[in-house]
């Protein structure tokens, strides 16, 4: 990660190296924090943040789910992110934003009422999450040995830091086994999502993606469904079993960081032609046109900085 100049912390811009916390901050010990992952792209008219309001709203909602009372409105946090991009004077093709609310120093023990809430917005230039080659040729996906925790034992719809222990274990295992990313099933054995992205497959020209029953309610997944329907591609949201993944014609992951990443192998099985599929490529190029401001129909999803 390349350092930027400033981080917005509790209403003020501080120098990147001064954005620090105490080692006894509550979240570091007990894992209750909420994050967002938002992206800005350098368009012909300067940087534009993609679906900013939806991301900030999801942060607020994640916080409500996990009993963190963020003392800023969605509008105030949107403004902070716009200003953050401006002040940092980025030059790269895209910038990743990481809004974050966590419990600070002052209270110990699991009961967190009264712990101070810290709100932070950071941004930095970041290349392709699953690699440039992954975007072109596809990645290798491994079905994780651990499932996504059942809805009875966690809040999977909160983008909560705590949920990323499960993602982290799955991702580490996948990479250690020679794969690039992990696909997690739910406790019933159906596809939930990847460690940090949503899953799509193409079957007989149709897109199939699971419902958000045991997954984050993803903003990119929604965008891709809209893109596909606009192109006249049928989209089906239903449960997907492991075997169906293995015999799909095409597969790809979607996410703010993952963008549209083709999948070429799942658990030693080649998917379709073993490289980026035709429909995947169409959706990928349309997605990049949209986020880079080259598609007028989707302009309303862009918040320009200048
Ligand atoms: N699932 C998980 C676990 C994620 O971390 C992400 C990335 N935020 C996604 C799905 C995709 O969500 P989005 O499209 O909103 O970035």
UniProtKB/TrEMBL annotation:
Pathway entry: Amino-acid biosynthesis; L-valine biosynthesis; L-valine from pyruvate: step 4/4; Amino-acid biosynthesis; L-isoleucine biosynthesis; L-isoleucine from 2-oxobutanoate: step 4/4; Amino-acid biosynthesis; L-leucine biosynthesis; L-leucine from 3-methyl-2-oxobutanoate: step 4/4
Enzyme Commission numbers on file: 2.6.1.42
Cofactor list: pyridoxal 5'-phosphate
Record keywords, A-Z: Amino-acid biosynthesis, Aminotransferase, Branched-chain amino acid biosynthesis, Pyridoxal phosphate, Transferase
Function: Acts on leucine, isoleucine and valine.
Name used for this protein in its record: Branched-chain-amino-acid aminotransferase
SUPFAM superfamilies assigned: D-aminoacid aminotransferase-like PLP-dependent enzymes (SSF56752)
Catalysed reaction equations from the record: L-leucine + 2-oxoglutarate = 4-methyl-2-oxopentanoate + L-glutamate; L-valine + 2-oxoglutarate = 3-methyl-2-oxobutanoate + L-glutamate; L-isoleucine + 2-oxoglutarate = (S)-3-methyl-2-oxopentanoate + L-glutamate
GO molecular-function term, one example from the UniProt record: L-leucine-2-oxoglutarate transaminase activity
Stored InterPro entries: Aminotrans_IV, Aminotransferase-like, B_amino_transI, BCAT-like_C, BCAT-like_N, BCAT_family, Class-IV_PLP-Dep_Aminotrnsfr
EC supergroup of this enzyme: transferase
Encoding gene, per UniProt annotation: ilvE
Family per similarity comment: Belongs to the class-IV pyridoxal-phosphate-dependent aminotransferase family.
GO biological process, one term: isoleucine biosynthetic process
One GO CC annotation: cytosol
